[in-house]
Amino acid sequence: MFDIIGKRRWFYLLSLIITIPGLIFILLTPTGVAGLQFTIDYTGGTRWEIRFADANVTPEQVEAVFKQHGLEASAVKTSSGFIEIKTARFSRA
């Protein structure tokens, strides 16, 4: 049998070795120096995948339309022919 209780201090040490770097990264995140890079799931915003009737529409054209309206968006063409648009959370004016 494996003596788990007798080796509990080793398991505590192993747990600390795994947990402490994770906590450091979480604490460094708000400073922007290092840490976790939050995706749209945590920062807010919207993500669309659109296929236009005109297949010649480019991501640059989509970004230009957003920019004309004073909004910031990033657009990327996917391999399946869709254009993926990501926007930051819009503030109400």
Rg from alpha-carbon coordinates: 23 Å
Structural class assignment: alpha+beta
Tell me roughly what share of residues is in helical segments: 25-40%
Beta content comes to 15-25%
Description:
- The protein has helices spanning about 10-30, 40-45, 60-70, and strands at about 45-50, 75, 85.
- β2 (about 75) and β3 form a beta hairpin.
- The radius of gyration is 23 Å and the shape is elongated.
- The chain has a three-stranded antiparallel beta sheet, covered by helices on one side.
- Helices cover about 40% and strands about 15% of the residues.
- It has about 90 residues and is α+β, with helices and mostly antiparallel strands.
- It starts with 7 loop residues before the first helix and ends in a 6-residue tail after the last strand.
- The protein has three helices and three strands.
Keywords:
three-stranded antiparallel β-sheet, alpha+beta, 3 helices, 93 residues
Question: What secondary-structure arrangement, pairings included, does this model have?
Answer:
Blueprint: H1 8-28, H2 40-43, E1 46-50, H3 59-68, E2 73-77, E3 83-87
Antiparallel strand pairs: 1-3, 2-3
Short summary:
With 93 residues, the chain is α+β, with helices and mostly antiparallel strands. The chain has helices spanning 8-28, 40-43, 59-68, and strands at 46-50, 73-77, 83-87.
